[in-house]
Amino acid sequence: xxxxxxxxxxxxxxxxxxxxxxxxxxxxxxxxxxxxxxxxxxxxxxxxxxxxxxxxxxxxxxxxxxxxxxxxxxxxxxxxxxxxxxxxxxxxxxxxxxxxxxxxxxxxxxxxxxxxxxxxxxxxxxxxxxxxxxxxxxxxxxxxxxxxxxxxxxxxxxxxxxxxxxxxxxxxxxxxxxxxxxxxxxxxxxxxxxxxxxxxxxxxxxxxxx
Length: 210
Hints:
The protein is α+β, with helices and mostly antiparallel strands. It has two domains: about 10-95 and about 190-210, Phosphorylase Kinase, domain 1; about 105-185, no CATH class. It is about 35% helix and about 25% strand. β1 and β2 (about 30-35) form a beta hairpin. The longest helix is centred in the C-terminal third of the chain and has 15 residues, at about 195-210. It is globular, with a radius of gyration of 17 Å.
């Protein structure tokens, strides 16, 4: 298994259900995928991105990966800079990668590069990026719903934190319909936790530390 994550908290998560007997499937820059009994699980340290996908999926937005079950924060993140960084877990639908050399893939790659200049969109460039996205919705009709969801993702980030990752590797295809959806559009911002979840994470710190 190729571990994107490592440390005592990651080991704790992997020893619990539902990942205890799951098999490594793949990983990206900030998430690992595991499979078990035909089901797919996504473990990430990008809390705000996790919350965005979960909320949009619950609202019925078809242009994000479908979150079948949101487990929320399951442990503090190893090697975290801040106390509000956690591992977040969700069961998600199976999707297919988009071939960047295909006609559609090449079109999307060109569009995303024009929107983001081929780089992560940091908070100080977000206003310009959003304006580009809004302009693109008026002449890229086949991708308008995808772009509208990208705008929502950008606005979901804190004003002075996080980044938009507008890249072909962060969209995938839903096999049942052929629809292109976002799988990982934003990074580097903490997720939303309830008081009960924070208490649970503090208890885990005590448990794993000892």
